[in-house]
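Retro notes, item 3 of 5
We never archived the inputs for the iron/sulfur cluster complex last cycle. Fixing that now. Sequence and ligand:
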Amino acid sequence: MPRAENIKSADSGESLDAAGFRRDLRKWYKANARELPWRESQDPYRIWLSEIMLQQTRVATVIDRYKEFLQRFPTLVALALAREEDVLAAWSGLGYYHRARSLHRAAQFVMRECNAQLPETAAELRSLPGIGEYTAPAIASICFNEPVALVDGNVERVLLRVLSLGENKRSPAMKRLHEQATMLLDVRNPGTHNQAMMELGATICLPRNPKCSECPVQKYCKTQGEHETTARKTMRSQESVYLLATRKKGTVTEVLMMKRGAEESQMAGMWELPSLPPELFRNSEVLLGLRHSITNTNYYVRVLASKPALMEIAKNEHGDALVWKRQKMLNTLPLTGLARKVLQRMDLLHRPPVHLPGNDRQQIE
Ligand code: SF4
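Structure as it came back at the time:
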């Protein structure tokens, strides 16, 4: 493992006191780490689940979903034995459903091939579905104390600023950044070090307006503020229209839903509201309007109230895919994030409060 007590900044050539950096970072983390449910456990299954959920989803959103997921699937074996539809239902609202499918497949593999024990090294973990170059060292260092550095978006930003490097996403530059992260790693406490680096990026060294005056490693930092970045991709816009139709059967309320086809490239098999052709409804009266962002696309969504003519169009568009679902059962379906958002805003979807013993503290990012 390459290791140095003084690390040179690429641009300035000045060296950084790596031992002092590690010490001050660790001290700060021990005193200031947020209390998050997955930090109360060393169970590799729980750490793995949290790391997968935290990819591309905010901490505040993950907290409740993490607890709910563990209520339904408290162990790796319980997850491996579950039906995929139930796993997707427990994941709905977190988005990026390929993560849930990979998690499920990986749990089945580990149960079948590894006696239900997660592999303990980053190299072995990387062979599992959905575990990549960031998640593997996170699990290996936090759960099994393997001295491997990780570079996620937060750590990358901290390193670029501390070492005064400009942003460069080309692979030689990223490889070099990994080497710098490895040299800076606290090999005696790799899990704590990696978590501290991520925490620093998430709470202090923010993308905009970093809190340098509160930063525990300010004296080592060559940039002391925002670093040079390359231009971001501009967001695309897309309009979409959905129909919200409900009916009463006795005392039971039903909502018209549709299941996305298995051949869809995104969110296959998930449930959503029936879509309508946007060009037909540019000037229609809207029940609800909202914006929904997925990667680099902003969807401008209009939801229309049911009318006979709209029901006809929906039937022509979707035919047998339309199904009336009992409102009380909506929570058990794997809903798309957008469907969940609309149903919640229209008061048609309720989530019961979740309490796990000893895990009811919540911190909002
Ligand atoms: S001093 Fe500022 S820019 Fe440097 S690591 Fe700390 S918060 Fe980030």
